Amino acid sequence: MTSIDRRFFLRAGVAAVGGAVLSACSTSESTTFVQPGGAQVRAAEAARRPGSVREFRLLAHEGRADLGGPTVRTWLYGDRLPGQVIRVANGEVVRARLVNRLPKETTVHWHGLALRNDADGVPGVTQQPVPSGGEHLYEFTAAHPGTYWFHPHHGTQLDCGLYAPLIVEDPAEPLGYDEEWVVVLDDWMDGVTGTPDDVLAELTAMAGMTTGGGGHDGHGGMAMPTPTPTASAKWPHMMMNAESDLLGGDAGDVYYPHFLINGRVAAAPETFTAKPGVRVRIRLINAGGDTAFRVALGGHRLTVTHADGFPVEPVETDALLLGMGERYDVLVTLKDGAFPLVALAEGKRGLARALVRTAKSARTPQADARPDELNSRIVGYDQLKPAQDVRLPQRAADRTITLNLTGTMAKYDWAINGRKYDPKIIEPIRSGERVRLSFVNQSLMWHPMHLHGHTFALARTGLRKDTAIVLPGATLDVDFDADNPGLWMIHCHNVYHAEAGMMSLLGYQA
Ligand SMILES: [Cu+2]
């Protein structure tokens, strides 16, 4: 079933665009890579000591979703938005049968998990895409407890309603809490202003009409029609003037008419009810396509306990910033009243919200209420330290791979090392190595960079993550131990940047 049952040949520096330093693929010898379904992958899976098997059925289909007022035609997992959470215990085996009733082929990617390579869901690399009307069985051991999620890894499908949480519970959970809520953030346009493919087509077409290498704002020669973030009649999907200090400038490319928490618009929010004094664990997931969210709970401070599923030394904050694909777990002890849980679309106009109610009689907060906490302390990567038991041991890198993040909004030529994604080009690593990835952002936009199959450590603090924001002009070094053989993607989790070409592959040498 795999197309990788053959030798891959590295191509030497094929392209260097705009003076970008090409350093990733500097060898030209031929290399043989571990196959996604090969013996080494099976051995790595056996070493996870697979526990009992849990069966799930995942029906991907076209359906209607009620966003709490607007009702849209979209693509969904099952009959709800987000899709039904998959919840297993650490060490259990997820056996999920994808039934594809979409009009197009698809795959499922299990975001953040160190899973067996052939279950990773990358079309043309770890599996063939599942055709319309087809089925595919994903089976993998959930090796680390934490907050994860799943979505298609095919075209722009992630920006429809195809996403759901995957929670891996720790049977020896060290945290004490009374309740647990999963809060999924999303930016929404599908079935309202167009489809994700319309958006990509517009961004690409617009690039064809502009010249030059991108202006200071990253929007190249485009006129700026208004000072507030908005779209225009001519380019209904393109976001103009989305600016954020936290994101180092340009906040996003895409205009969304709605922002959602758990599938609901702000005017019709989900309400979480509990008693005052109750301690809640909130699992935050950003499932957006092109929007970072700044999250706060009015009247409360949050204690951050996990980043991307992995524990941190607990630290208090008023708000958190989540790029696409990022997750945080927080603990909060609820006060008496009714409080807005707000996710501000960072740098864009609009917000998503839920309500937290511990008193029946308390007045409901205004729909557009923006709690002060949003503009107070916002803990970032530098204030987060990994819990002692998940800190990577000190070790020098055996190999450093430089990934220049390149491209401009004007040309919409997002790429890595100036080269558009090519599944035949694979950067070799070896089992057992400590690998450093050096993300050098040469562009004028931020990029949430995601590595499949591993949880890296930020070089500066050791914070364990699988998706990390790289600000414009900045370099972010991350380290990981090559302990999960296979072919793995590194890509920007902005779905439009990824589709434009900001993706590449790492491969374990056979
Ligand atoms: Cu990007």
UniProtKB/TrEMBL annotation:
Plastocyanin-like domain segment(s): 67-172, 258-357, 399-504
Official protein name in the record: FtsP/CotA-like multicopper oxidase with cupredoxin domain
CDD domains, per the entry: CuRO_1_CumA_like (cd13861), CuRO_2_CopA_like_1 (cd13870), CuRO_3_CopA (cd13896)
InterPro entries: Cu-oxidase-like_N, Cu-oxidase_2nd, Cu-oxidase_C, Cu-oxidase_fam, Cu_oxidase_CS, Cu_oxidase_Cu_BS, Cupredoxin, CuRO_3_CopA
Keyword set, alphabetical order: Copper, Metal-binding, Oxidoreductase
Keyword Hydrolase: no
Lineage: Bacteria, Bacillati, Actinomycetota, Actinomycetes, Streptosporangiales
PANTHER family to which the protein is assigned, alphabetical: FI03373P-RELATED, MULTI-COPPER OXIDASE
